[in-house]
Design brief:
The chain is an alpha+beta fold. It is 22% helix and 40% strand. The protein has an eight-stranded antiparallel β-barrel. A hairpin with an 8-residue loop joins strand 6 and strand 7. It is globular, with a radius of gyration of 23 Å.
């Protein structure tokens, strides 16, 4: 009986030594991990004007993985379709419309929980000036949604872009109901 008690005590001690590793608090960046579906994208000026850079019903995907990589794609779904089959045959106007209606980039990410900022460290982008840059986004988690806020950018001083994302699995669950 003593032997069983000693073995149980040793097992409990071994388990407790392992438990902190298994049940360690998730880091803030873990909250971002997943595939996010774009719900809305609007730009607000200091004067209160609201515009929709990718139209009223943009589509997009934002992905963060556990290894610290990210990618983002946002598209205006009603972009005009060019006449030619390949971009080399498109007119300058067709290329501009295709470019203006799409945002895409990827890289790594880090999170500053104290500043409530996620930083996208851009490795490749449709926008050449973003390559090698850090795109800082203030963030808020709102009941299964993620709001990213970016100041200025192409909207000018005093302008803020607001993008609301929802975890794709929640969207799938809602569609299944």
């Amino acid at each position: 009986m003593k032997r069983v008690s000693i073995l149980l005590l040793l097992a409990a001690l071994l388990y407790s030594a392992q438990a902190p590793k298994q049940f360690a608090r998730r880091s803030m960046s873990d909250e971002f991990v997943g595939a996010w579906k774009l719900i809305s994208f609007e730009r607000r000026t200091a004067a209160g004007e609201v515009t929709y850079p990718m139209g009223q019903n943009p589509v997009g995907r934002l992905t963060y993985d556990a290894l610290g990589r990210m990618s983002a794609q946002i598209m205006q779904p009603d972009r005009p379709k060019p006449q030619g089959a390949v971009p080399a045959s498109w007119s300058a106007e067709e290329k501009a419309a295709a470019f203006d209606g799409f945002i895409a980039y990827y890289g790594t990410f880090s999170v500053s929980a104290t500043e409530r900022v996620v930083i996208h460290h851009v490795e490749a982008s449709l926008y050449p000036q973003w390559v090698g840059s850090d795109q800082r986004r203030r963030y808020e988690f709102l009941g299964g949604q993620l709001m990213l806020l970016a100041g200025n950018g192409s909207g000018g001083a005093g302008t803020e872009s607001r993008l609301v994302w929802e975890l794709a699995r929640q969207q799938l669950r809602r569609n299944a109901q």
